[in-house]
Specification:
With 866 residues, the protein is mainly beta.
Length: 866
Amino acid sequence: MPSHRTAARWRCVLLLSVLCSQPLASLAQQRNPQSDAASYALSGIVLDPSSAVIPGAQVALMKDDGTPVAQMIADTRGSFRFDGLSSGKYRLLVQAIGFRNTSIDASAGARSRAEIRITMPLDAHTESVTVGASDSAAQVSTEISANQSSTTLDRNALDRVPVFDQDYISTISRFLDSTGIGTNGVTLIVNGVEANGPGVTASAIQEVRVNQNPYSPLFARPGRARLEIITKGGTPDFHGSLNFLFRDSTFDARNAFAEVKPPEQRRYFEGSVTGPLTPGGKTTFLAGLNEDFLDLQAIVHAQDLHGPIQQNVPNPTRHFFGSGRIFHDFSANDQFWIGYSYERRTVHNQGVGGTALPEAGTDLNFQEHEINISYRHVVSTKWVNQLRFLVGHFDNRTASLNTDPAIVVQGAFTGGGAQADFRRTEYHFDGADIVSYASGKHAWNFGIDVPDISRRGYDDFTNSAGSYTFGSLAAYQASLPSTYVLQRGVGHLIFLEKVLGAFIEDNIRIKSNLSVSLGMRYYWQNYFYDAPHNFAPRVAFAYAPSKNSKTVVRGGAGLFYDRTGPGPISDLLHFNGVTLLRYILENPAFPATPVQLAGFPTSVATLDPRARMPRTLQYSAGLERQVTARSSFTATYVGSRGMDLFRSIDANAPLAPPYLLVPDPALGQVRQIQSEGYQKSNAIELTFQGKPSKYFTGQVQYTLSKTYNNTSGITFFPANSYDPSNEWARSDLDRRHKLDLLGSSQPTRFLTFGLGLSVYSGLPVNVTTGSDNNGDGVVNDRPANVPRNSMHGPGLINLDMNVSHDFALSKSREHAKNLSVSLSSFNVLNHVNDVTYIGVITSPFFGHAVAAQPPRRMQINLQFKF
């Protein structure tokens, strides 16, 4: 840390420069007299504590001895850049209304190419301890949000690492914790608001991150269960990116389950542009388009009465996305922006592959419109208000390719029709209003979060001709199905789903080497009535043993509530015994006759009156150590306990052998949604990240974990509804070992290398009989004395690599143009990574896989930036 006297000198120099007669705007990007001979630059982005950009921040560049070099004002996306610098050490001083003055060290030179991220605390007049000196990347710090076990990919990193199909979300999702994800799946946060998608094209994404501030009450889910995206803003000058991506199976390896290599190709066109709409750059825009032609082949590996089936089936996808945003900067750093996006996607032969035959496929047609609005208002030097929300509508239709009854032979093949006709529509609103206040040692955040208010339409026409399930090929040959499921009645349904939250947190700088965060979040969802109990306290701390220590001790704990999602609500309203009737026949004739259905009791879905929202208690403690000036190592223990987790039982299941009598003969299956599940998870996580040398920039993470539970989610049924305790076993998502690496290297100015590596141990596989032996309408029965998830599935090894080169197309540093050519190879080792492992003991594939992840694939990407 610099001395107080030196820090005061820097502040005085900056203050004098601000008071000069010439405005800072006219001094933007001034250079020293020797800059013409220099060839280096420093660039970065200025962010607030919630990681929103701070446009108009005043950035001053000084030499290491305090001599002023240049000044500029950050643009509307918070970005700044100083060109024409000589090699050496510098210091950046940043000021913005409502935020504490911030200074960091930086170095210009051939090795300093990464964008500098400067997070400005709200003006609380307190001191921060930052361990390490020369760069903001991978700096161990006692800031609560600066945990070094997080994963962050900025724009520069996204362009350097191997990214399959420009899918940045999937690339960084490898660092998520699958055991902490809720009923609705991964939570996606875009510019601080929960959303269904990024809302922009790939090149308009500024940053992607996982596990930032894991116990913040601003978010509903813990850090490793949510993925945060920061998008670009408008700029006063025209800038943009145009991308073309191409793949062809001619250059790929053959899928392990295909007899003949299928012809596949992808053509991907994407781009974004930003610039001014009015003179002076107060009003700017961002626009993007994406057109995608994906011609894939589904690989069928099944067996029927005539023998094995291996077939390649066309599985084309067409995708279009377009978006536009307008930004306007007011005085005092206030900013407003509004955006619109449209997305269309069609998929043919969806669901085909593995044991699913072409006749059992579906066609998908999806469309979505969305409007995003954001307004930041700086009330004073202590108060800032950020309002963000979106409104949207989507229409998602699934249509079966034929109308025949479905034929499911467990572990062998699925044929007939898909019986999956379904339409889902939604008008939704998501939003948040966050108020930030800083005073003394405290920085408060409080507000309201609305993850979802949706008017949902469900048109359920599944099983209109019925689905037959056979326990084996022998049973199919003998025409002896185990179950027959048929639906009749009104499939149309409209309901309103409402999910609300409120939060408050106080980030306290107790001492210069100790920070504490205390917070509380409140959850509420309609259709579940335990709202008075849904308070979730959160706490986190960061402590450095001494002011100049290179070690930080960090920990925290928090309670996180889940929510049902729309599917279970739809089931409760649909299958009420009146609206949509579901019949589950045990051991029916094949084909079933109308006589069998006459007077047969319908099945219903109910909610346990004792049900409450599931909650997870997560806690962690770890050590962070600065290894070099630009890299750190973290060792963290993470534990969690899932309580009152969702599951379903048949409350009207047939009584003990011979399973012929049910408690209520007037009803069929009574699916009761309960919150009686439990989960226990422990993990040790080792993370190394940063830039230890010029040969590597990125992150390596190893996790040793163990997760046991007695439920797999809200649609899970125990094998015996009268004794769910027998389900305690390895979680479906339990991976004992998990190693991930993602990074890049630029050993020469001519080439950049990217690397992605994933090495995982296998997931468990549940062994079943293939039949409904106990007559509860659920085909999940296990052999006697065989516990759940008792078979070990195959592991995964995946290595991705890319090499790229940037061609400079202009000499101007202010208006640089370059063409980047990248060649990527995914699954370089061509390792067979099985994904569908058969645990049905009557299957001809028992103990083997019937599908695998794609083999080695090659991809070329051309990117033009200006």
